[in-house]
Amino acid sequence: MRWSVFSKTDDLIKIATLNTSWYLKANKKLKMKLHFRYWLILLLGFTISCKEEEQSVWLDEIGVEHIYERWGETHANASILGNPIRIAGKKYDRGVGTHALSTCIVQLDGKALKFNSDVGIDDEEKGRGDAEFHVIVDGKIAWTSGLMYAGTVKHVNIDLKGAKQLALVTTDGGNGNGYDHTNWANAKITFEGEKPAIVPEMLINKELFSRDGNDQQPVVVTSGILEGKVNEKLSFRVPVAGTHPIRFSIPNCPQEVKINAETGELTAQCYEPKEMRLRVEVENDFGKDYKEILLRIVPQKRQ
């Protein structure tokens, strides 16, 4: 609940002044009590008037020109081809149209509260395309869509309280990035204080998407941290760029963890809290890559 009484400090001053006159006429010995009440009201008014208001900003308003994708050009309120954003038959007036592989890094500096968006493949490709969406908060995967096909939509709602940086990443569906027109529709950040800003493209490490300019060589595109819960099965498809088929492996893989060598589907289930460091290796006919991932298994929250 937010205080809404006394929207102006002037109103508080008038109230304090009226109280002052009344007390002085009634009893001069109450001067100490009067002054205390007077300053208390003024302090309350100052606190309320200085409190930062909760605000919202559309992702398309904070610098889409800085979003990086391997193909095409990002558009505000339009698909990657410049058409109105449409997902699963629904038209969206706001949003950002990108193309897998893409990344958008937003500087939050602890001022943001939450991130909301609908995600999906744009209808302009007439049923073609598949991709995955990833939300990474301060280097930790907060949400991943799983493999999505054209004609489907998912909603994202992420708590950002205290977060310094938000990364929005799209990756291809494992068969190359053809037709992967990925949309962040109605994407919005709620914040207090200074407005978030997208980090300029020149500051983004494009090594994330290629090795020596070779788009065929495999590249693991993911945060270095995964988190699961005790007694719950964790399932995560390791996102990777490059020409398929790509082979996946984890040397010295713990018995609680398995990875599908063909699809990169990583599963884990633990019955006690623990941390495991995994070296995920990928290889195709054009080269190799690897990523060190910290897998954390944390206790279930009590209801």
Q: Helices, strands, pairings?
A:
Layout: H1 9-26, H2 31-50, E1 54-58, E2 68-69, E3 75-76, E4 85-87, E5 90-92, E6 95-99, E7 102-107, E8 112-121, E9 130-137, E10 140-144, E11 148-149, E12 154-159, E13 165-172, E14 181-192, E15 197-198, E16 219-220, E17 225-229, E18 234-237, E19 240-241, E20 247-249, E21 257-259, E22 265-268, E23 274-284, E24 287-298
Parallel strand pairs: 17-24
Antiparallel strand pairs: 1-14, 2-7, 3-6, 4-5, 6-14, 7-13, 7-15, 8-12, 8-14, 9-10, 9-11, 9-13, 16-19, 18-22, 20-23, 21-22, 23-24
Helix pairs in contact: 1-2
Helix proportion of residues, in percent? 10-25%
Order of helices and strands: HHEEEEEEEEEEEEEEEEEEEEEEEE
CATH architecture of the largest domain: Sandwich
Mean pLDDT across every amino acid position:
79
Low-confidence stretches: 1-26, 205-210
Q: How much beta, percentage-wise?
A: 35-45%
The CATH class of the largest domain turns out to be Mainly Beta
Q: How many individual domains?
A: 3
Rg result: 26 Å
And the CATH topology of the largest domain? Jelly Rolls
In DSSP terms (H or I, runs of 4 or more residues), the helix count works out at 2
